[in-house]
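Q: I'm a student working through a structural biology exercise. My instructor gave each of us a protein and asked us to get a predicted structure, then write a short paragraph describing it. Mine is Mechanosensitive ion channel family protein. I'm not confident about reading structure output yet, so if you can add a plain explanation after the tokens, that would really help. Here is the sequence I was given:
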Amino acid sequence: MNFDLSPHHFDNIDLGALFSSDLIASLILVLALLITRMIANRVLRARADAQPHLQRRWFSTIRNVILFLLLLGLALIWAPQLRTFALSLTAVAVAVVVATKELILCILGSFMRASSRPFSVGDWIEVGAVRGEVIDHSIFMTRLQQFEPGSFHYAGRTVDIPNSAFFTTPIHNLTIGRDYIFHSFSVTVEPKFSLVAQSDCIDAVIDRHYGAYAAEARKINASLERRTGVDLLDPEVSIRFSTTDIGKYRVNIRLFCPTRIAERLENDITRDLMAEFHDLAERPQE
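A: Happy to help. First, here is the predicted structure for Mechanosensitive ion channel family protein. I'll explain a few features afterward.
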């Protein structure tokens, strides 16, 4: 196939007629969509009762819908003229595809995300070693408000992930832990007394701090299982005894508790258990 890219090939095209009406239609389309976006954003900002992550989700959705309508409208407006250049630009198009492979993968990753919906704005996700809350996404990238490693505390920074990464990296949706989470921690002591014999003391300390949340945690756990169709762990308090590599005693505790107070519960329970164990260690052995 031969492509005529000589200047004479384009001499027969009336550029004035080509751009006059289509350019005006394109400007009208852009102006109409900009006005629509401004009105929609103003309406959303006026809703004081909307939660921040829901507002971010709607802002992102509006922007992406406007962008899609803009691209679709421009394609329809300029379609007759684009057909005129189609054959002449085929060879150029092949080169463009090769040069913009990464951008094309990002766009395809965006379509994959939109079709399968593994997450949306406001969700907590983990992609590879990056964990955070989705605060924005576009056809090229997804922006996360990053968490501190191993926790759900905001790190005060954002990270942009190219959408092409979704083809090669698993996506873990952690939104189920937004309000409630299975929180595990352990307390290690010297082997100066029988730790297993202190089960009642450990139960009493945990119930002192966690008892007020236990009933609600069971309801939330059952509700999450019904809503998501995912089998969750038992919400009851789990207590396991083990030893370290150097022979010290360790009690491992797992709670299903509100995410916002998980670290506070860990700190309070650990403090009281350490005080109890210290008193036991100081008592004379019989």
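A: Here are two points you could use in your paragraph. The CA atoms of residues 188 and 250 lie 4 Å apart. The longest strand covers residues 180-189. It's a good idea to check both against the output above yourself.
Q: Great, thank you!
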